[in-house]
Amino acid sequence: MRSWEKKRGEVEVGDGNWKPVHLTSNEAQQPFLLEPPTPPPALWLRVLFTSVVSLSIRKMSEVITAGGEIPQNMTIYINNLNEKIKMDELKKSLRAVFSQFGKILEVLAFKTLKHKGQAWVVFEDVSSATNALRQMQGFPFYDKPMRIQYAKTKSDVIAKADGTFVPRERRKRHDDKGKKRKDQHDANLAGMGVNPGYAGAYGAPPTIPYPGGAKSMVPEAPAPPNNILFIQNLPNETTTMMLQMLFLQYPGFKEVRMVETKPGIAFVEYGDEMQSSVAMQNLQGFKITPQNPMLITYAKK
Fold it and tell me: pLDDT-derived band of residue 257, with 50, 70 and 90 as boundaries?
């Protein structure tokens, strides 16, 4: 390959050949360096800008990838939760919304400033946690979209189950304090059964109080399909907001109406009977608690 250095008086004519041109004798004897063409300043700026942007994007991708390498596990971490919701209501609502994906072992949320707007839901298996993460990502929960990812650390309840649990002293007092409340809560749930008045939904005719003993009622004809659903067998602690979270995910939802004097029942209204039918088919038998599968029928008008 020919050097960049050549004598004046020669020009390249192709294929590495050179031919002389008419210059003065002094000019022809003076060597000089041929420099590669210099691109316009604007082009160099574009190249530099593109390089910087590419580097920034690559670094951002590395950070995102590093942050997204949390292994799949049975616990999901939720943030961007509404901080105005009371702690008990928040836990109950989270349990109600996520129990459709599988058995929930524990719902954790704390009042401390550091943990506001956050919660952890522990499932019995990884597949349940994965389905919940995928399907509920961005779900509007108390008017704020949930942000969900796998928890970075193993939950205590899972660690205790697999024998890897190590007590944390700073949480010991909190755990002991909450144990009594949890035991009482579990006892209350265990005492809940299917309301005898709704027993007909589970294979036996419902009964009514009768001086001589229980008396079977003649089953009534079901109401024809319409836009209002009648919900039965709800646990006493069910709130309007909890039901809204469940039924809002189906198109045409309008409102939930609960009867204060009659706990355990509610009415859910949709735009038309087709929309209400979709909700009924998907939520029939949904368990807000393990003891309370919902019974959904069309409301009588």
Answer: very high
